[in-house]
Amino acid sequence: MSEMATSPSALHMQAVALGAAVFLLSCLASAQQPPAPGCLDKCGDINITYPFGVGGAHCFRDKSFQLECNVVVNNSHPRLIMPAYNQQLLSLSPDGEALAALDIQHEAYYYNCNASHPTASASSQPNNMTFATLNKSTVYRFPVSTYRFNATTNSYVVPVALDWAIRDVHNCSAAKLNATNYACRSANSKCSDTTDGAGYRCRCSGGYEGNPYLHAGCQDIDECQRTNEYPCFGNCINMPGGFSCSCPPGTRGNPTIKSGCVKTNQGLTTGSIIGIGVGSGAGLLVMALGAAFLTRNIKNRKARILRQKFFKQNRGHLLEQLVSQNADIAERMIIPLAELEKATNNFDESRELGGGGHGTVYKGILSDLHVVAIKKSKVAVQREIDEFINEVAILSQINHRNVVKLFGCCLETEVPLLVYEFISNGTLYDHLHVEGQPSLPWEYRLRIATETARALAYLHSAVSFPIIHRDIKSHNILLDVSLTTKVSDFGASRCIPAEQNGVTTAIQGTLGYLDPMYYYTGRLTEKSDVFSFGVVLIELLTRKKPYSYRSPQDDSLVAHFTALLTHDNLSDILDPQVKEEGGKEVNEVAVLAVACVKLKADERPTMRQVEMTLETVRSSLLRQELVPSVAAEESKEKHVSWSYPVSEGTSIESSRQYSNDEEYLLSSRYPR
Prior knowledge:
Elements: H1 9-26, E1 42-43, E2 46-47, E3 53-54, E4 66-70, E5 79-82, E6 87-93, E7 97-105, E8 120-121, E9 130-131, E10 140-141, E11 148-150, E12 155-163, H2 172-176, E13 189-193, E14 200-204, E15 208-210, E16 218-220, E17 235-239, E18 242-246, E19 251-253, E20 261-263, H3 270-313, H4 316-325, H5 327-333, H6 337-343, E21 352-356, E22 359-365, E23 371-376, H7 382-395, E24 406-410, E25 417-421, H8 428-432, H9 442-461, E26 467-468, E27 477-479, E28 485-487, E29 494-495, E30 502-504, H10 516-521, E31 523-525, H11 526-542, H12 557-566, H13 576-581, H14 584-596, H15 607-626, H16 628-638, H17 660-667
Parallel strand pairs: 3-4
Antiparallel strand pairs: 1-2, 4-5, 5-6, 6-7, 7-12, 8-9, 10-12, 11-12, 13-14, 15-16, 17-18, 19-20, 21-22, 22-23, 23-25, 24-25, 26-29, 27-28, 30-31
Helix pairs in contact: 4-5, 9-11, 9-15, 11-14, 14-15, 15-16
Domain Protein kinase: 347-622
Transmembrane segments: 273-294
Region (Disordered): 632-672
């Protein structure tokens, strides 16, 4: 619209001045204490509420809220003034609203109203008057029905609604960080963010009214005395921040509406009431028993269906095939879940023996009083299930005194359960690496090595098709009360078809014991177990842990042991107990161990050859204790020799077993 009035600047300046004044009202500096007694609380008929105030600095929150009460000559009503702009206020409210008196010239003005240049427009009819926003963070509103004409100034006095707020911080969250300057003093107040710019306002909580900017400014409302606002036609009880409204005794209904409470039926006799109560109680009891019986039946049925599902999921048909081939297996291999739960007290943590690479082991006592170890997988993934079924298939064919005996299995759970004979004396690792006391005697170590070799030789050659353990280590060699060896944990084992000498498969095993050639090629053969067994022999001789040992030259245990044997410095790494108790057979076992860990698989002996060598060494040791001369002669005749390359005919350049590349290949497998 184009400008039509002759002097618009006066109105525009008045509007800008008023906007600036209100903007200052909204911007606060530091906080003051609530007004002290003696501050003016009324100017004419206008109540002055904190944070506004008239008087000294202690009467208002800060300069932004300072007001003056002026008495005008020939006017009986004092005027409440914002002194900074000589602007009259008509009312104040702690709810964030104030009314200001704005003089509008009688002439008609028309201004463009846009966001960048806020203006006012007026006409000769005040009822058509509108007033634009002077500041983005402050709102001004005309109550257009209330205005008066000022004959002296030839202008209309229009009340303008001013929305004020505490604007020294952005919002409530920021304000609450500074408790000293936080404006909402009353304990029964709440803070709300402004919607017209940065800042916040304080309100009394529901059920309270008053001034939230004072410490005790918000007082409880007695809703029971305000029936117009809070209707209650029953028993009304006032409570802090609310009230309770209920129907009188003997009535029921809606007490918040007139005649909403009606009398209840009082015609029943005491006997009738007792009869109804007894009958209802009996009925509820019957219903509860029926529900419990039905729930139990449903639960049992679901459990039975779930067991059947898990049996199929866990490839129970494989076990069924084994059962069909041998009736004796049928009697001992299938163990119900209920039997194992009873044996382990529902797999209580106190029955847990430990966790291996393929599951957790619990101790249990079966109904026939057999003490057993029950193996349960931790992860219900198909690979774990396949390994458990694989272990069942393998161990069901094995009957050897040095291999842990499988009593049976249970496939009625999400993860299969295997039940073994209980070996009570721990593992070879536990006995060998005991702290603070002597370890196993050398004679026992040699016997354990011989029995382990015997078990592996049996697995490789005495069963219908070869079985490769794939995870030989001291942790998987169990010892009973008489220290008899029991090879365990066949979860990673593989069967090799009779017409093949190996299979290509995913890598499984333990760092420090794992065959390097198997690791790099994926080709699994019987010689992979030979390498792992050779590491166990070195562990028996040195009491060093293969997965963590590093030499001063940063070599692995296998590489360091081989180098010391090559340079005839084996005593540098031998266990002092072995050096003290052993004789020349220690060197023979060391030579055998190095032969087992040769890098090329075809240069390693078979487990049968290893068994024969250890049997000869052990027999020689035993006979040497009885008849030293006879034992020495027979040892020469029967010993299976695994001489080390530095013996006769070997040049000094070839005295190391591994080349530099091979040494690096071995060393890279073990953690640094």
